[in-house]
Amino acid sequence: RSSRRNTSIANHVYRQTMTSIFWFAAFAARQLPLSPPRAEGLCRFSGITLTAMCLVAPYLWALHGLAQPLLYLAQRNSGQPLKVSPT
């Protein structure tokens, strides 16, 4: 019974996490094109840092994966020197 309850809780957290990721992606897409400062602000507002490589939860890896291309595109479109690589 405890195992089933733990699985249920894990599934609930996973669904919430995936919903958050999709909301972030949709919000970011509506904000394009972004200036680099605005892109960085959006990522900071969402709790994302590009230097946090020891991310514990899988959803943080997913958000990190969304943030880096977002910042790269913003920098590339601004004509400023790139500080973030596309990968």
Explained architecture:
- With 87 residues, the chain is mostly helical.
- Helices cover 70% and strands 0% of the residues.
- The longest helix is centred in the N-terminal third of the chain and has 30 residues, at 2-31.
- The N and C termini lie far apart (43 Å).
Kindly report how far apart the N and C termini lie.
43 Å
Shape: elongated
Strand content: under 5%
Question: What average pLDDT do the residues reach?
Answer: 63
| Total strands | 0
**Element string (H = helix, E = strand):** HHH
Radius of gyration: 16 Å
Q: List low-pLDDT spans.
A: 50-55
Number of domains: 1
Biggest sheet statistics: none
Topology:
Blueprint: H1 2-31, H2 36-45, H3 58-78
Helix pairs in contact: 1-3, 2-3
Salient structural properties:
mainly alpha; 87 residues; 3 helices; single chain
Brief account:
By secondary structure, this protein is mainly alpha-helical. It is built from 3 helices and no strands.
